[in-house]
Here is the input.
Amino acid sequence: MFKDRLKAARKTRGLTQKEAAIAVGASVGNFSKWERGVVKPSFIFLEKLQDYFGPSLMVHEENDENQIPETQPLIDLEPEAQELVTES
Here is the structure.
């Protein structure tokens, strides 16, 4: 899970939560919530975390509840309208 990879990446670097939070421009409270899985980081912070800790932080595991799902249409379109959207 993402929270476990984040904690492991921080500990591998020998950082406290405060040091890691400062490194990515986050509050210590938010960083702690990310590691505990209470909340997920925004896309902006996901990018900052990846830049700092490396791309392995973002590797998705099968059945990872934090995995970003495939894009789904927001509304169901009639078949004719769907064809127009996919042709664009």
In short: Residues 2-12 form the longest helix (11 residues). Residues 8 and 87 are 44 Å apart (CA to CA). The chain has five helices and no strands. The domain at 2-58 is CATH 1.10.260.40 (434 Repressor (Amino-terminal Domain)).
